[in-house]
Amino acid sequence: xxxxxxxxxxxxxxxxxxxxxxxxxxxILPAGAYTPSELxxxxxxSMQPFRDTRSDAVRKMYAAEQTYNRRRNADxxxxxxxxxxxxxxxxxxxxxxxxxxxxxSVRYQELKKSLRKVAGGKTQ
Length: 124
Prior knowledge:
Blueprint: H1 36-46, H2 56-85, H3 94-102, H4 106-119
């Protein structure tokens, strides 16, 4: 039972590209450590159709976590954009930026105006 190397198939462009921001884990299963029947059984088991056995509560918790991660990543990209365009005006810490944005502070509004001026009105 032989499979192609991951770096020749799924990881051609590196580990990050299989699913960005995903928590993939790989396990090494040396073929010599298992009998042919054990390898065949593992192969059959790995090719079963996907069936989500999680409870509704766990699914909702996962969806909430993904929503949080998406918002955090969007905020991080936005903060980096401000830091690049306005290094002297943007908050020095990401947590400071998130707090300022969450409260929609006067300073955050001024920062948005400054970015629009620098970018020529091309930002949202």
